[in-house]
Write a structure and sequence with these properties.
This protein is α+β, with helices and mostly antiparallel strands. It contains three helices and eight strands. The chain has helices spanning about 30-45, 45-55, 150-160, and strands at about 60, 70-80, 85-100, 105-110, 125-130, 130-135, 140-150, 185. A hairpin with a 5-residue loop joins strand 2 and strand 3. The longest helix is centred in the first third of the chain and has 17 residues, at about 30-45. The chain is globular and about 45 Å long.
Length: about 190
């Protein structure tokens, strides 16, 4: 089980290293690592499990954040169904690549956070509002190409940045962190 203490912090030089592609077909070890990453995310938003295991809430986790320098990330976003029940919109990607992106920018109104970053870094993080990602999805057990928009697109770009040792605060305008981004999609 992955816990918060397993997450590398931005003070660890390994967080800034580049990741390598994962060999396919996927090994059992890589598959299990990715599924454990996904489980961390799901457990982190469960109040009981989060408290019991000391988990910090998350919507995404990239393999480099746990010291595995491979291009894998998991993402699980809580969705309220029409009947009021909750479910996860979840992904477990291997070797994902952005094959197209919108010119329109997007950012989170309250800025981004990261399990690897304990200090607060305030400011807008401009990203593409829409992206198309191609990669191997462990949950579907096949190569997929999906379009992501808004919040999901931001989360995916944030996680894929980890493959290149890039952290969200690297994108913040140092001179004017809250400078308006023209025609951007602002996500509450």
């Amino acid at each position: 089980m992955i816990t918060y203490k397993d997450i590398l912090k931005d003070t660890d030089p390994k967080v800034r290293e580049k990741s390598r592609n994962v060999k396919l077909p996927l090994s059992d070890e890589d598959r299990n690592t990715l599924l454990e990453m996904l489980q961390y995310i799901k457990d982190s938003v469960d109040e009981e499990k989060s408290e019991k295991y000391g988990l910090r809430p998350a919507v995404g986790l990239a393999a480099p954040q746990i010291g595995v320098m491979k291009k894998m990330f998991a993402m699980a976003i809580l969705v309220e169904e029409e009947d009021g029940s909750l479910s996860f919109d979840e992904y477990a990607f291997v070797n994902p690549k952005i094959v197209s992106y919108s010119v329109q920018r997007a950012y989170l109104k309250d800025g981004e956070g990261c399990l690897s970053v304990e200090e607060e870094h305030r400011g807008f993080v401009p990203r593409a509002a829409r992206i198309t990602v191609k990669g191997y999805d462990v949950l579907q057990d096949k190569e997929v190409e999906i379009r992501l928009r808004g919040y999901k697109a931001i989360v995916a770009q944030h996680e894929m940045d980890h493959f290149n040792g890039v952290l969200f605060y690297d994108h913040i305008n140092k001179k004017n962190p809250f400078e308006e981004i023209p025609n951007a999609m602002v996500i509450e």
